[in-house]
């Protein structure tokens, strides 16, 4: 019934976008292992002198700091409603999860193939690698975030869709 409606009639898309922005900001602002945890893993695996590992750790630190600052920027706008910062933050966090997920496996070398009691920290890092996918798809995939940023932030034209104005109930069914 109308008494249960949130906002004005026809305003459902706005409510849905507000919810998605909040979800994206939460996912983007969260994180599993921190940078210090990655350094501790590298130390435990004895790869802190490896130049490639050091370079990848430096990249991870840079990503971590950028996400921290993006999160601060998104939260500073909270009174004005979450804007495009939420999508930028979510995309950056997704990229960090991908890179850091691969990094933790690389740091462990062959040990990354172990799991549970046989693995470092009982498979914690393997779980971080495997768990990245849920955060990378929740709140909108990277492709969706890029579309939102392109269309709503940069003002690029949207995809051509002849059915954009057709109600869902009227779309052809298979």
Q: How is this structure best described in words?
A:
The two termini are 31 Å apart. Helix content is 60%, strand content 0%. It has helices spanning 12-29, 35-45, 51-76, 85-108, 124-137, 142-153. The longest helix is centred in the middle third of the chain and has 26 residues, at 51-76. By secondary structure, the protein is mainly α. The mean pLDDT is 84. It contains six helices and no strands.
- Low-pLDDT residue intervals, each spanning 5 or more residues: none
End-to-end CA span = 31 Å
Number of helices: 6
Helix/strand/pairing class, anyone? mainly alpha
| Helix and strand run | HHHHHH
Radius of gyration (CA) equals 20 Å
β-sheet strand percentage: under 5%
Q: Give average pLDDT, whole number.
A: 84
- Shape label: elongated
Q: Total strand count, please? A: 0
- Share of helix, binned: 55-70%
Largest sheet properties: none
């Amino acid at each position: 019934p109308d008494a249960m409606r949130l906002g004005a009639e026809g305003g459902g898309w706005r409510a849905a976008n507000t919810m998605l922005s909040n979800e994206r900001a939460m996912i983007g602002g969260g994180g599993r292992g921190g940078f210090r945890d990655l350094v501790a893993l590298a130390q435990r695996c004895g790869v802190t002198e490896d130049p490639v590992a050091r370079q990848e750790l430096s990249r991870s630190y840079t990503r971590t700091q950028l996400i921290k600052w993006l999160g601060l920027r998104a939260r500073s706008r909270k009174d004005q409603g979450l804007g495009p910062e939420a999508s930028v933050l979510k995309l950056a966090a997704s990229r960090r999860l991908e890179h850091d997920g691969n990094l933790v496996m690389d740091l462990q070398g062959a040990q990354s193939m172990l799991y549970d009691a046989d693995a470092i920290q009982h498979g914690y890092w393997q779980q971080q690698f495997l768990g990245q996918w849920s955060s990378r798809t929740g709140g909108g995939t990277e492709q969706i975030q890029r579309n939102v940023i392109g269309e709503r932030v940069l003002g690029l034209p949207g995809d051509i869709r002849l059915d954009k104005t057709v109600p869902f109930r009227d779309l052809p069914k298979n």
